Each structure stands twice: as C-alpha cells, then as structure tokens.
Amino acid sequence: MTVQDKVIVITGASSGIGRATAELLAEKGAKVVIGARREDSLKEITENINENGGASSYQVTDVVNKEDVENLVNHALNTYGKVDAIFNNAGVMPLSNLEKLKIDDWNKMIDVNIKGVLNGIAAALPVMQKQGHGHIINTGSTASHHVAPTAAVYAGTKYAVKAISEGLRQESGKDVKVTLISPGVTDTELGNDITDENIAGGLKEQRKSALSPRVIAESVVYALEQPDHVDVSEVLVRERGLG
Ligand code: NDP
C-alpha cells in the first residue's frame, strides 16, 4: 500500500505538523487538500507543492466553524472526486495555571482541539461511509496520556481526542479506519500564544531537543500505508529518554 493518488484532507496545515505532513504526503504522490485560517501560508504551501510536481489545493478553514470544515471536505470532493483520509490536526495550546482563570483560553482549547476534531469527523464520516472506505486520523499528544502542571485543560482536550478516536474506532466497523497520532514535544509554533513568561520560557527550553515535525509526518504516512486489514490505532512518538 502506498499513499500514491490518495486524497487527504489536513486541518491545521498552515504550519508545524500539518504543513510537514502535507509536504511529505505530496512528495509521495498523494493529493492534499489543506485548511487553516492563515491564507497566505496555505497559498504558499500549495504553490510550492504544485510547482514541485505535486497536487495540492487549499481552503481557508476555521475548524471551530462546522460549515467551514464541511466546505473543506466538499472542496476535496469537488477537486479530486473522493476523500480517502482526513487528518484532524488543528490545535492550540495556550498553557496556564488553572488559578489564573484564563477562561477564554480554556474555551479556545475546547473549541479548537475537541470541537474542531468532531467537526472534521462530522464532515468526513458520511462521505467515507458512502464511499465504503476512509481513514480518520486525529492528533492527540503525549498529553493524551499524562497531565502536567499548566496543561490541565490542554491535556483534558487531548484525553478527549483519544476517547473520541477510540469510540469512533469501535463504532466505525470495516469501512473506516481510525488512528490517533500522539506526538511528544515537536518543534512547531504551538504555544506561541502562551502569555506567562515562565511557562513560555520552559517550553522554549523543551523545544531545544524537540522532534522535527517531519518525524510526526512519517508516522501519519506509516498509518496510511498499511494494508486494508491493518488498523494502526495509535502512534505515540516522543523524544528518547523523556518520562
Ligand atoms: P502549530 O501551531 O505549528 O500548528 C497548529 C495549526 O493549527 C496551525 O496550522 C494553525 O493554523 C491551526 N489552527 C489553530 N487554530 C485553528 C482553527 N481555529 N481553525 C483551523 N486551524 C487552526 O503547532 P503543531 O503543528 O505543533 O500543532 C498541530 C497539532 O499537534 C495540534 O493538535 C497540537 O496540539 C498537536 N501536538 C503538538 C505537539 C508539539 O509539541 N508541537 C505535541 C503534541 C501534540 P492557523 O493559525 O493558520 O489557523
């Protein structure tokens, strides 16, 4: 199995893991349809892919908005005629201590990290059921497995993504595969919106030995390239030696 000619929708593809995954999949012959809010970045990524002989298209998408995500999936259908996989990857991580009561940030994480994934499932699942095949890949985290101070709400959203992925796997039967990709610290823009200087400084320190987003992209390709009867339920990839 290869990803050649597969049509893959990716959210949160304007930077970091989503971008690296779009670029790697396109190199391997997949047709990638990318979404995020920053159009300049989406345009640049799409143009680069297409100039290098790949196939890519974009649609400005806010995953919090159900219609936006439906439009993204429909854009893939209209452009390439099918949707083989969706990578529900968009996410935000404005870390803070709970006692700071950053309720807007809590809501943002719940909206993007949980509802965004659900909007992706709602948009893609009926299409995949009608096609008789599909693969839904969601981005979890090592924070889907353990909670650390300042990350209570973020980890809560990632535990939720893990639970939703597992529930979907159990319910979706033979037609639709489900994979949770759970990265450790990866060198991306995630957390650039952290306002507490100490927390931001701690993350900067961790980033010094972070994984490259390409490593996570490779794990997405691994899940996609398995034969029909093989279901990769989760790929947990983290830096060696971390507890
Ligand atoms: P980035 O910040 O580089 O990428 C996040 C992406 O999400 C961007 O493309 C951003 O695009 C998009 N995004 C944010 N909000 C929305 C929204 N409302 N609608 C659509 N797109 C949105 O970080 P990563 O690449 O690291 O993050 C990707 C995923 O990986 C996230 O789910 C994150 O939680 C997860 N993760 C990351 C880890 C890390 O250490 N980096 C570790 C574990 C998990 P735009 O601003 O243009 O909308």
UniProtKB/TrEMBL annotation:
Keywords per UniProt: Oxidoreductase
Keyword Oxidoreductase: yes
EC number(s) recorded for this UniProt protein: 1.-.-.-
InterPro entries: KR_dom, NAD(P)-bd_dom_sf, Sc_DH/Rdtase_CS, SDR_fam
Record carries keyword Oxidoreductase: yes
SMART domains according to UniProt: PKS_KR
One Pfam family per UniProt: adh_short
Sequence ranges assigned to domain Ketoreductase in this UniProt record: 6-188
GO molecular function term, any single one: oxidoreductase activity
Family matches, as CDD domains: SDR_c
Family of this protein: Belongs to the short-chain dehydrogenases/reductases (SDR) family.
Protein name according to UniProt: SDR family oxidoreductase
Species annotation: Corticicoccus populi
